[in-house]
Amino acid sequence: MNGQSDHPDRDEHNIGLLLRGVGKRDLPSEEIMAQVREAVHGEWQQVVDQRRRRTRFYGYATAAGVAAAVLAIAVSLPPAIPCAPMSARA
Predict the structure, then answer these.
(1) In this structure, are residues 11 and 5 in contact, taking their beta carbons and an 8 Å threshold?
(2) Cβ distance 28 to 22 under 8 Å?
(3) Model pTM?
(4) Helices (H), the chain
């Protein structure tokens, strides 16, 4: 026995009859719906704020890394040798 019915069409029909017999569910009051909506909105706002802070942090960290790499390259290069002006060469 694997828990599956030999008559899936009859099972669906019986489930449909059961659901029709139960009827529609009652909706929560407007006050409860407003409280839930407010709680969900607050949670969503926290998630958005967290994501914004994380994105900003990674942006600043990337900029700092690029600046450090440019500075390291600039410090490690030998100084440029100035060329004499063209008029002095003649």
Answers:
(1) yes
(2) no
(3) 0.48
(4) 8-22, 30-76, 86-89
